[in-house]
Structure formats: C-alpha cells, structure tokens
Queue: 2 jobs
Job 1
Amino acid sequence: MARINCAHNMTLLFTILFAWLALVAGLLIAFRDRLLALWHEPAFKAPILTIESDDWGAGPLTQAEALSKLAACLNRHHDVTGRPACMTLALILAIPKPEMAGKVTLADAELFSVLNSIHAGQAQGVFALQLHGMMHFWPEVLWEAVSMQTEVRTWLIKPELTEQLPSHLQSRWTNAANLPSKPHSLEDVQAAVAEEVGLFKALFVGVGAPLSEIYSDAACSLFAHEGSPTNLVVVPPTFVWDSRVEAAWANQGVSVVITPGRRLTCRDADGKPGCQDKTMLNGDRGAGDLIYLVRDDYFEPVFGHRPEQALAALARKTALGRPCLLETHRSNFLTEAGGDPTAALAALDDLYTRALRDFPNLRFATPAELGHAIRTGDANWIEQDPRCRFTIWLQRIASLPRFGKVARLTGLLPLLNLFARSDLRP
Ligand SMILES: [Zn+2]
C-alpha cells in the first residue's frame, strides 16, 4: 500500500515538475528575442548621469547669459574622478529671418554672443555639443503652413522661439504641411543633412581645447576622442526621423543617435508622432552602423519635475546597467520661453549635489563618449564579468512588462536569483 502511495506521489511530483518546465520553457520561448536583446545590451559599470538639454543655439540673445549661468552651475559639481558636470546642448544652427527672407545662422555676427557662450562652455568641458538640426522644422513646410495658419504667420514676425510653433511643424524630417505627413524626397534629405552637418563641424569640431587637455584621467581612455568628427551625435527634432535620414547622417560622419527607444517616422492624422517602425536598446545599430542611445527620463523643472524624480530614474537606470540620460530643454532656463531660470538652476544645482552624495561613484559622461565605449567594448566602462552581467540581466528581465510578473509567480526569477551576485541583487 505504502509503495503504491509512494509511486502515486512520485507520479504527481513528476507531473507538476513537467508542467512547471513546460510553463517556463513556453515563457522563455515566447520572450526569447527580448531576453536575448537585453543580454546583448551593454551593461555600464558605474552610475552615469547625463543631462540632455535641447533647442539651444540660433534664437534669442538672452541665451548667452543663460548659458553662462548654466556653465557656472555645472562647474560647481565634480564626479568621483574630478570631472565637472557635463550637459549636452542639442543645437539649432539657424532661424529664419523675419518674413522668410533667408536665415540667420550661428556663424553670423548677430548671434556671436550666443556662439561665444557655447564655445566657452565647450572649452571648459561642461557643454557637449550635439546636432539638433539646421532649423527645428523643414523650411518649405513652414512656408506652406504660413498661408493656412495665422499662428505661423504671427510667429514669423519674430521667429526666435521654435518652441512656440505648432508641435507637428517642429518635426524636421517629415513633410507635415498636410496631415498625415509624407516623407521628404531622398535627394532633399541628403542635401539638408550634408548642409547642416557641414555647418555643425565648421562651428564646433576641433574648436577649443580638447577635453583631454583640460582634464586627465589615466583610467579613462575616452576623452582623447572628444570632438572627433567620428563621434558626432544627433538628436532628431521631436524624435521623428527615418532610416534614410539615418543613412545620410552616417554618410556625413555622425556616429550616435539619441532616441526615445523607438523610431517614429511620421506625424499621423492628428499631428501626433506615429508610424513606429523600430524599437531599440542602448548600443543597437542603425543605418551605417550608427549607435543608438536611449533617453526616456525627464528633468523639466518648468513642468514641476523635482530632483527626487530624477534621482529615482538614476537609481533605476543604474540597477539596469544603463546610463541615465535626462531630457530637458532651454525653455526651463529662459524667461521668454516660459521658464523660471532661477528656480531651474536651483533645481539643477540640488540634483547634482544629491546625485553626487547618493551615488559616490557617479560618473559624468557625454553620449559621444558612451557611444565610443560601446563601440570599443571599453572595459573601463562596460561590464565584462559574466556573473555581473547575468545579475544585471536578471534585473532587466524582471522589469520586462508581463514577463517579469509571470517569471516571479512561477518561481523562475527567484530560482535564477540564487546564481546572481548577492551584492548586486535588488
Ligand atoms: Zn527640440
């Protein structure tokens, strides 16, 4: 009798075990692409904080003073290696002249004070310059909209703050004169990219002292590459672009594209960014072997974002082996764009102070440097130890929507966690 019971129990046990294995195998197979992608995504060793500030450049002259104050704030904070805080500026190179008669670029004398402030911060190593676009829109699209929209006509009387244009018209790399938008011709894209990358290089590449001369860190091999044409970084306006634009960027020497983790290629019938054709993780490659970086956290004091939220994002990204790229805009630091510069600078100061206190091994790095570290697999920055990578991967898969919950309920994650590095466990 006891033997029959025992056999019965064993059968039951094997049935449960088999059912569990089948469930786990099904789960792993269903999510295999995502799990593999998360394994291949490079894992950064240290917490990295990069504040990404968009829309600077051609525009109001008050930017000159705002940028000087920003540079002073950044210079007050240094990471564990002694490097000053570094903010990226995504630059607009030109604005139209009133009434559409040509354009004023950062190379023109009337914008000299703004260019000068940008160069000063670049030379101090506190500004990392990225290309946002010749203009924050496609000029011909805007001219077409002028005839249809009074607000665009009004804007053109003093065309300094592109933030004030209707959102869909701020997308440069799609023709949103009529909605849904249509692609530009390939020839137009290639010509526009060549023109804007050429001007960006002329204004900013090789200008000022390379970071390696003003800051030396023997353990870090990245800085010698700062400013090199092979490390140009682009931030697509409104994050709408397509593969043809990417290929044109790569052709002109751009090597890193900042993304929100997905590529949206059009403006839909409601004017919203749409036509998603791709998702990406840090280090994924685009056309011409461009490297994508993901920026999906925000620090916009003008919208009420507090340093606590930014610090929580930094903690989250660090646990996942990812750099924390925080998006912000010049509008926070310009009164005429609706910002409160004093409050924004105080919030920024507070954020850096607390980040350096809460993360003693915090590093400041630019997307150009991160892209280079990924491309070369630099062991100073990228985790090589398999057990560390496994532990970070476990945290990444635990945060996958749906998968994480089921993997926890089935006991798969707790089981895998037994093999993780205990000091890195969440
Ligand atoms: Zn922008």
Job 2
Amino acid sequence: MHSIRRAEQRSQPRSLPGSIADLRAALLGRVIAPEDPDYESARLVFNAAVDRRPALVIRPADSADVSLVVSLARTDGVELAVRGGGHSQAGHGTSDGGLVLDMSNLRGLHIDPARRVAWAQAGLTAGQYTAEAARHGLATGFGDTGSVGIAGLTLGGGIGWLVRKHGLTIDDLLAAELVTADGERLHVDSERHPDLFWALRGGGGNFGVVTRLQYRLHEVDTILGGVLVLPAAPGILRSFVAAADAAPDDLSTIAILAPAPPLPFVPSEHHGRQALIVRLLYAGDPACGDQALAPLRALARPLADAITPMPYQQMYAADGSPGRVRMATRSMFLDDLDEHGEKAIFDRMQAQPSPMSATQIRVLGGAMARVPNAATAFGHRDRRIMLTFGAAYQDPGQAAIHEAWVTDSLVAMRPAAHGVHVSFIGNEGPARVHEAYPEDTYDRLAAIKRRYDPTNLFRVNQNIVPDGDVAAHPRASELRRGLPGAGSD
Ligand SMILES: Cc1cc2nc3c(=O)[nH]c(=O)nc-3n(C[C@H](O)[C@H](O)[C@H](O)COP(=O)(O)OP(=O)(O)OC[C@H]3O[C@@H](n4cnc5c(N)ncnc54)[C@H](O)[C@@H]3O)c2cc1C
C-alpha cells in the first residue's frame, strides 16, 4: 500500500516511526535488520578489515525516504553512516549499532547527449555510470576503479583517468540535490546555496546526504590505454615523474611499484620481481598517441608493453570486481621526488611485509592544477604528485604489521609530504583530516558546517568539526605536531 503513495503525499511531513515495523511501513525502500537473511552481506564494506554491525541497513527508494531517515537519526540521536559504493578506506560506509543509509538502490541516470549533461542518482558506481555514458561516446572522469561509488568519490574531489585532460571530477559537477541535517531537500549549484556547492566539492559527506548529482560530459570514445611494465632500477621513479609531468594533458598515468604480477604478457622470469607497473590512458588525437607515449617507453626497455586502443570504459572493465580485501594505506602529496625520496621509497619496498604491498605514484597537474586552490574545497590542486603506500592482506592477525609498515612509510617521506587527498585517508585521526585542507579552506568548511550541520549529525566521515572553539579543537598547525614523523614545527 505504501508503495503506491502519491508523490504529493510523500512531500508532506510525516510523523517519525517508533518501531522497525513502523519504519518499514513509512518507507518505500528496504529496511534490513540483523535477523534478515541478507543482513550479513548488507553490513559489509569494501575494506574487509572493517567489521561492524549496524542496528539497521536502510536502502532508500527516493529522497523522501532519505529525509525521513535523516530526521529519525537526528531525533533519536542515533549514529548515521551514509554509504555510496562502500569503498571508504576508514569504513565510513558502516557503523556499530547505528543506522546505515545505503544509497545503492538509487541508480537512476539521465543523460542528455545534446547538452552533454547527466543527472545521476547517488547509488551509482563509476563503472555503471561510465558504461551508460559510453553508449553516447561520452564520459565524466571518475577514479581508477569501476566499483567505487560516484557520490563518495565526487565529494572527495575525484582524481582519475581524465584528471590531466578534464580536471577533478568536481570540475565537472554542475549541481547536486541533497538532504540536509534538518531533513530539508535542497538543490545546490553555483547560484543556489553557492557556499554549500563550494563545500561539497572536496568537503566529503559532511554537509548532507546527496541524492542526485549533475555532471558535465565530455566526448571520450576510443582511447589508448593499458599497462607498461618497466624494470625497477634506481632512478626510474624520478625519470617516470619527469616524463609523466612533461607529457601532454591528454595523458594521465598511475604507476605502481610492486612485484610484477604473473600475467601472460609479463615474461615469467620477471614474475614476483620488483617492477614499475605504469597504467595509463591517452585521450588525445590517436595519430599523436605514439609520440606522447615515446618518452615513457624510452625510460627503460619495457618488460611488457600492453598498451592498445580500447573503448574508454574498458579501463574500468580491466579491474573487474576486485571483491573485498583487507587494506592498510597511507597517502600524501609531494611537490617533487628527489633522490632522497626515491631511495626512501625503494627502502620501504625492501621492508614490505607481504608481496601484496605496493607504492602508487600519480603524477597530477594539467587541467586539475589550472583551477585555483580556493575555487573549491579541494585545496591541494597545485601538488604535483600523489604517493600512496598500500598493503593488502588476508590474515586479520597481521593487521598491526601492515599498519606499521604504511605508517613508517609515511614517516620516511616526511618532511617532503605536504597534504593528503581526503579520499585516501583511513582512520588516522583529526590531524590528518586537517592535512587534507589548507588552513583557510578548513576554517571555511567549518563555518559552513556550523551553518548546515551544527550538531555534527554527519560525523561518520573524515569529519569537519563544526565547533569553532579552538581550545577544544586545536588548529591544524597544533594538530600536525602529533602526526607521524611530523616533528615540532
Ligand atoms: C580500490 C579503490 C580505488 C580508489 N580509487 C580512487 C581514485 O582513483 N580516485 C579517487 O579520487 N578516489 C579513489 N578511491 C577513494 C574513493 O574515492 C573514496 O574512498 C570514496 O569515499 C569512496 O566512495 P564510495 O561511495 O564508494 O564509499 P562509501 O564508503 O560508501 O562512502 C564514503 C563516504 O562518502 C560519503 N558519501 C558517500 N555517499 C554519499 C552520499 N550519497 N551523500 C553524502 N555523503 C556520501 C560519506 O561520508 C561516506 O562515509 C579509491 C578507493 C578504493 C577502495
């Protein structure tokens, strides 16, 4: 009966449900409780190291459902976690004892190919959106992995395969619809609630539950993509950074220093030996592709060269469905990679606790860096390199070893490390959240948070603390003294 409620009825305020049965009756969407058969799968997120048991997982069917759940959490004082694709390293898409608002059933996508804009519901993944847009020869740039949710990725900024050509994902965000902490449904763009629109572009899930996002689309069809495997000889990291930095904006790269995988195109004598695995995408004029790639191919004789023309969406198909994995990561931005920094990375890889440890290097710049830092809440656009140490592992008893390896790796890179991408932070404490933002950006975010979420209802995230009390919440410079390896400045 409730499923046929008319739209105008649903826009009226309703009384909050007092029991699970009332809640089920009040919502169009699903409520999954611990006794339900799919509760075990519904409570899980991508990082298998996170094992939490929410009171309920709620899959809303529309923004009225979202508004009701937000009001319920606020009124009852229950912890509220918001989940898109569930890929938060910190496990922010789930909760112990709270409500999980799992947006995964909201997957509507409307593409207007003539205007090159799309309205996407917040439960879509990057791979789902990209496959649909590809039917029109169009794309919006997301990250490197298809199973990541578009909402979580976009709210953090979004660094992906088109970052040098078209900028961050937020540079293609035109508008958003969200439910605020008081349950109000807002449309935000550069003219309506511009402060909120600024904050959403990099400030994470701190300001409300996003239900729809409007993106600009670009013509992206056949690209040159794939993998170049290079020997991990001394100097290779620095020369890779120089070549990727000097490349045309059409070329974006993600390099991984790790043992070479036992793939058919990698000669077997190199399997398991340290290599620089360069994943890349060239989205320019196909006639100029070989010329653009030549400097990378000239860095060393490639152990394998599997770069080929392919449809853009195949960059996501390649990662398939990676499944859940236990992960420890530490990430940072660098302005440069000198001899000392390169040696530190090689030394850390020597100390790697498992063959599934890796160092990822992304050379940024291009369109991302042409937008001023203060234009959006993503305030580290001028950083040249993003460096991430990651350890994937299976045995939960080994968690401390892997956490220590990534933490020590971050320490080894200081003081060259300046800032961090908010989407790449784990459970690392408030000082690291401050590190994700220049100080004035953080202050501006906190002021907007005070306005839209003064009680910090949306706190299961990389949290912007609304309280302006500096004594209670020390400023970034004070907090940073407590960071691993930061010393006292
Ligand atoms: C394998 C892997 C690859 C990745 N690659 C990239 C990459 O190439 N580039 C990049 O920029 N990032 C990348 N990331 C990081 C990723 O962008 C962030 O972890 C992002 O937060 C994940 O979004 P999600 O919706 O999947 O995660 P979730 O865990 O579901 O959500 C993460 C947080 O986002 C917020 N959020 C999600 N949905 C909503 C919503 N509808 N409304 C309000 N808040 C919401 C909430 O605060 C939530 O806690 C990667 C992560 C993984 C695990």
